[in-house]
């Protein structure tokens, strides 16, 4: 009888650790904008604070890949979980002016965590199960966002910063204790083909000639920018427009991501072929979803919640589809570093959604900001359509 390693006990334990690690993020994503607005911060300032998390995560991804390869996932995980606990505790001790620094430090821990987990999964699972393992890892990371937004709003209304501080303490401590006994290997699986034969800079220079990487990264960058703008500004958008409920929107969106990643995890391609129609369809799904969000201020909450469904479905499958494809086509010797860069590009998209879209909302409107995101996604779908035939010959 064949067994599915991606749902075996050791891997389920990894998914539990992932769930705990990311449980603080949806609460912070709600509380920071609310506290910022209460203390007079502008949308641009809030966007910069929120974007600091993804900015440092993005910058440290390539280096994290090398560190994980050198010291092993288990050692790296134990160190970063301790650091994460300290950072979460400091959120309650410091004022808003320190949140940029704390978000930046939290982004660094996330860079190492995601590389340690994803590279451990990719190197351990058989090729035919890679997409399932990645999908379940992403599913575990998204589960907290199903209840996190509603919980954050409740905590803020009920106990303010005291309730927020208690939640951060409990989450950080639980993740540290359970994560210390992680079943991750102490060293990544290695062979002569996978040993880096050049410096990290030499490996990075390969990216400019790798069409598969460039197309996948462009698609992920723009999708992440739109998604980041939605998550960061949806609370303020609903408050200003009086349409819908931000907590419910984020819960629906996250719920769709969770359900789609679980139900369709075996449908994500895991054979190394390029599936242009699937990628284009997912980008168009996000395009329509974000444009519906922009229009909801005029046409009501029904469009807003339809947007949540479409955005959730598009993001649920886009990342694992592109990530799994790249694990097959990137050179084995530099795969860890280059995958780190791809994840960094995804992070940078969220940074753009926070920092670049905030000024648009300040000077014009949230509705126009979301329409700009939708237009960018439509252009990305066009690029994938044009490049698809060449990638099929890659």
Care to describe what's here?
The chain is mainly alpha-helical and 394 residues long. It has a single domain, classed as Up-down Bundle (Growth Hormone, Chain: A). Helices cover 80% and strands 0% of the residues. Helix 4 (73-93) packs across helix 7. Mean pLDDT is 80; it is low at 191-197.
Beta-strand content bin: under 5%
Head-to-tail CA distance between termini: 36 Å
CATH architecture grouping: Up-down Bundle
- Going by CATH, the homologous superfamily would be MFS general substrate transporter like domains
Taking pLDDT < 50 over at least 5 consecutive residues as the criterion, the unreliable ranges are 191-197
Topology order in helix (H) and strand (E) letters = HHHHHHHHHHHHHHH
Our count of domains comes out at: 1
- The shape, in one word, is globular
Class derived from helix and strand content: mainly alpha
The portion of residues assigned to helices is: over 70%
Mind describing the biggest β-sheet? none
Radius of gyration, CA atoms, in whole angstroms = 20 Å
Task: Please provide the count of β strands.
Answer: 0
What CATH first level would be assigned?
Mainly Alpha
Mean of residue pLDDT? 80
